[in-house]
Amino acid sequence: MDNTVVFEESITAEKCSGHLSSVEDAIYVIGGKWKLKIIIVLQEKGNIRFNELQRNIPGISARVLSNELKDLELNGFVKRVVHAEQMPVVVEYISTDYSRTLKPVIMALSNWGRNHKNNIRQDVF
């Protein structure tokens, strides 16, 4: 298996540094154990309440989910909608149009992950 990366244009040290910086920025915003999982569930389920969101992400605590949602909201990936006219007050979370720009990235990661798992299985077993 050839692991060589072929670029369409030559990469200078400056361009490489720029790419590394951009990837670092992206990982800072969506990295970690939970953020992409939250984004994926929100994109698949639409409007969703906190407890339902927590049930859809096995292993996440309420405290961690709350903190991750705050981070995602600050970065424009999640919108918190409060329905104060209802009793009790209902709070829902929805993915933003901006978060949906991650869909091609998520699909590419999913495909890569599936291929990687298959390659590991072939090499190991």
UniProtKB/TrEMBL annotation:
HTH hxlR-type domain ranges (all copies): 16-121
PROSITE patterns in the cross-refs: HTH_HXLR
Species annotation: Chryseobacterium profundimaris
Keyword terms of this UniProt record: DNA-binding, Transcription, Transcription regulation
Keyword flag Transcription regulation: yes
Name the UniProt record assigns to this protein: Transcriptional regulator, HxlR family
